[in-house]
Recover the amino acids of this structure.
């Protein structure tokens, strides 16, 4: 994120979005959505989906097969058997970017539920926090016109 926010005073605009009965906040920098604050137990602060590629954020990636894309883009958690590859190092609990195997396009931001050496095992491997088409995504799209 240091390549996004340099050492200077900046102004962020905030969009409040209804999210699972609470309010999430999307932070804009120079008119672009960059961060999402989720009203979770840990008040997760995660990158907005498009910010990952736009700003070249260096986050670990979980590559999923094409059969997993539609369920993940509909809000499903990432299951071990759908994972093809892991790129980068992370620990259980860290943020990861979920990308499709064909284009490498970002389809979700999630939290690893397992360490990399166990991530392909049966069951949930990544908790889906923000995905293309979710309430946050739709609110930003509506705000953009």
């Amino acid at each position: 994120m240091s390549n996004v926010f340099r050492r200077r005073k900046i102004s962020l605009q905030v969009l409040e979005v209804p999210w699972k009965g609470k309010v999430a906040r999307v932070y804009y920098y120079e008119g672009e959505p960059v961060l999402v604050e989720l009203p979770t137990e840990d008040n997760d602060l995660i990158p907005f989906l498009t910010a990952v590629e736009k700003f070249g954020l260096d986050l670990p990636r979980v590559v999923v097969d094409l059969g997993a894309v539609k369920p993940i883009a509909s809000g499903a958690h990432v299951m071990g058997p759908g994972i093809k590859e892991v790129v980068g190092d992370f620990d259980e609990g860290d943020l990861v970017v979920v990308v499709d195997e064909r284009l490498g396009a970002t389809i979700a931001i999630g939290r690893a539920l397992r360490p990399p050496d166990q991530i392909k095992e049966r069951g949930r491997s990544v908790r889906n926090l923000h995905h293309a088409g979710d309430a946050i995504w739709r609110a930003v799209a509506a705000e953009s016109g």
In short: Residues 42 and 102 are 33 Å apart (CA to CA). The two ends are 27 Å apart (CA to CA).
